[in-house]
Amino acid sequence: MLMASTTLSANNGNSEKNVKVSTENSKAVVLQLNNLSEGTAISLVDQNGQVLFQDEAQAAKYSKVFNLNSLKEGEIYLEIESDEQLEVLTIQVTDTEAYLEKSAEVLIEKPILKMNGDQAKVFFGKNEGQTKVTIFDANHDIAFRHNAQSGSARAYDLSDLPAGSYTFQFKTGDRTFYEGITVK
User: Fold this and answer.
1) Per residue in 39-69, pLDDT tens?
2) What does the pLDDT look like over 104-155, one tens digit per residue?
3) Domains of the chain by range and CATH?
4) Strands (E), the chain
5) Which of 83, 81, 132 is nearest to 107 (CA)?
């Protein structure tokens, strides 16, 4: 029996999230997560973006064994998404084994939006490149557009917008995140 193990750590606020991925019996992948926020989403996604598995952590610890015997050769992606970040790990699948591609790990810090009356304060994570911000109204019309620098913070004055529901769209690299707000 072959067993390989990789442990990754990411600073997540006050506690450190631990990710352990190991392979056993060739194409079985064991995932162990510690110090998670409740509601953290765990997904396996193929190269075409099709979700193969999706779950949500109900506690600070999460474990799962993935049997990848039926998958064809190629890459699949293990995505671990909390309110603050998205971590993407690449798993290589061959005819005989599955293993973690250590050099392909991606960590995206998600923008954090805080409302204070008619002011929206957004804290942008330290990611590569800019984050494209678009605010849509309830009819999906663009109310505002802006490019934000990585690692910055910006206040958006929404007092001129009519009352209603709006959606912030944040594009960082090839990922898009959404946050809904209500202007009164």
Assistant:
1) 999 999 999 999 999 999 999 999 999 999 9
2) 899 999 999 999 999 999 999 999 999 999 999 999 999 999 999 999 999 9
3) 3-109 (2.60.40), 112-183 (2.60.40.3080)
4) 3-12, 15-24, 28-34, 41-46, 51-56, 62-67, 74-81, 85-93, 98-109, 112-116, 119-123, 131-137, 142-148, 153-157, 164-172, 175-183
5) 81
